[in-house]
Give the backbone structure.
Amino acid sequence: MKSINKMTQAELAAYVQSHLQEKGITVVLSGGACVSIYTANKYISADIDLIDVYSVARNKIKTAMEEIGFNEKNRYFVHPDTKHIVEFPPGPLSVGEESVTQIREIKLATGILRVISPTDCVKDRLAAYYFWNDQQCLAQALLVAKHNRINLADIKRWSQASGNNKGFGIFLEKYSGNKRSR
Amino acid sequence: MLRPLLGSKGSENVLIFMVARDEGYAREISQFFGMDISTVQNQLDKLELGSILVSLTKGRTRIYTFNPRYPFLEELKQLLEKALSFYPEEEREKLVMNRRRPRRRGKVL
């Protein structure tokens, strides 16, 4: 097994997830780290957001994390051998008002990485763009869409269901522009 | 009113304030309800940790709003709005009828 200081972000996430799973704690990777993974690090995030799918007791997570050398600092878990910080946002696993049902499992040397799909990753980023007009998240959604096979029809349906036709139109225009310029 | 469900009066006050005004910060919520500011801050922290609220700093003030990505937001707001409709009229008006339009700096009332 690699030492923590040599693990990539995805390997570290898989290592933590696998350890927690052994303790009966189910977590799924979401947030900026997914963008890093799906864009081959074109976007870098130091955070590892592991959604605590069934909202287990915080103390149970804390004990399990301490077993692998992480300590809780404010709301985050840090390890002396890595710059990555791990957070456990509470479940349910969702994008906007919809629950996420498709989980990808990627086998890595350090464990099994359980991560939301590229389509849900795009929705997750677009949600921040729609709600807060966050241009960084729009750029991240476009990056993920560019580097992965996504279900555009589902993203359109989801956007329309949450009343974000205009935002989706802007995303689609930029996405189509990217595809043409490839 | 929602205390048995939410677990504390402080939690109810914070959420009712949010649904009435869309946003708030610890000091104004504590002053409105006559609560200790640390109690309000604890409730805000708890609700933010639970992804029900999010916060942004403006100047030196941390402003809280509902998290638009919270999957039960619509249902939660409906519940809070209904609870608010059962509040005494005077308190409800004080919550809802606050000035939101701009006022030029230095303007005498």
